[in-house]
From TrEMBL:
GO terms for biological process, alphabetical: dTDP-rhamnose biosynthetic process; O antigen biosynthetic process
Name of this chain's protein: dTDP-4-dehydrorhamnose reductase
UniProt keywords, alphabetically: NADP, Oxidoreductase
Entry similarity comment: Belongs to the dTDP-4-dehydrorhamnose reductase family.
């Protein structure tokens, strides 16, 4: 890798997966420790003025954007300002910006898979924050790759998988939407995709723009939950046997979570040659790592 790569959010689950995979391929990252209160516009300005990397992978707010149960509007607003400043700095110093985003920029009203060209109408605070961050990156920093992921699954404490498995241990009954669909995406697979994109950008290929990636085989939230429980029982035999089906509209997060969140991944295949991997194949490794750290 000729480019000097800076990774913001190296301590996040996706950041750690990226560092692990990079080490296997002899790809290193500058992964600065964030300030006590997290990266903001001022600290990012100082960092990039001092270091001048060739590319920045911005996972600084990974947990809030992809895993947290709830994040305040004030916190999202501060993160949006920081992303806007980061885009300005990348443009000023001619740094490539790799910015993650999410299926949440769509409202979920489309029953067929979303392509990159579909209109974005985000539902909740998180989706709106991601959408505005996308807008500022596009407007400010032409040399960018925006990568929208499907349902990201990782082993982070307090994350989606952790909350689900704790409920499966503690609750008498568990529900999953049988009419909510998406692309589950294990964190190791997301890291593989990021590395593949970086390798081609390192060859000076000007492949800027917005791309979708999600694990192969769209499924329902109910079927995903059952698959996770099936793997997890190897570690916790006493987990709940079944998840009860529940309509999307009856779920507590129905106002914020898109009902239909399947992403079409043809563009990333045709542009970068990245093929979707089956998400089920990634579950054993993910759950093994999760239970080793619980």
């Amino acid at each position: 890798m000729r480019m000097r790569l800076m990774l913001l959010g190296g301590g996040s689950a996706l950041g750690q997966a990226l560092i692990r995979l990079g080490a296997e391929e002899d790809i290193g990252f500058l992964a600065p420790r964030p300030p006590q209160d997290g990266w903001d516009a001022a600290s990012l300005t100082q960092l990039l003025d001092d270091t001048r990397p060739d590319a920045v992978i911005n996972l600084a707010y990974y947990f809030d954007w992809f895993q947290a149960e709830e994040v305040s509007e004030t916190r999202f607003a501060a993160q949006e300002r920081a992303v806007e400043r980061l885009a300005e700095l990348c443009q000023h110093h001619q740094i490539i910006l790799l910015q993650p985003s999410s299926y949440r920029v769509f409202d979920g009203s489309r029953a067929t898979a979303y392509s990159e060209k579909e209109e974005q109408v985000p539902l909740g605070l998180r989706g709106q924050a991601l959408w505005r961050s996308e807008q500022s990156v596009r407007a400010t920093c032409p040399r960018h790759v925006l990568l929208r992921f499907g349902w990201l699954m990782d082993d982070s404490p307090g994350g989606l998988l952790d909350r689900f498995l704790r409920r499966a241990e503690q609750d008498a009954e568990l529900f999953g939407a049988d009419d909510r669909r998406g692309n589950p995406t294990p964190v190791d697979d997301a890291a593989r995709v990021l590395i593949a994109v970086l390798k081609q950008l390192d060859c000076a290929a000007p492949l800027w723009g917005t791309y979708h990636y999600g694990g192969h085989e769209a499924t329902t939230a109910l079927a995903l939950g059952q698959a996770i429980l099936g793997e997890a029982r190897a570690y916790r035999p006493a987990l709940l046997e079944q998840i009860s089906p529940q309509p999307h509209a009856a779920r507590a997060d129905a106002a914020d979570e898109p009902q239909h969140a399947v992403l079409a991944c043809k563009k990333i295949l045709h542009t970068f040659g990245i093929k979707p991997r089956a998400w089920r194949a990634g579950l054993p490794t993910l759950l093994d790592r999760y239970y080793r750290h619980v």
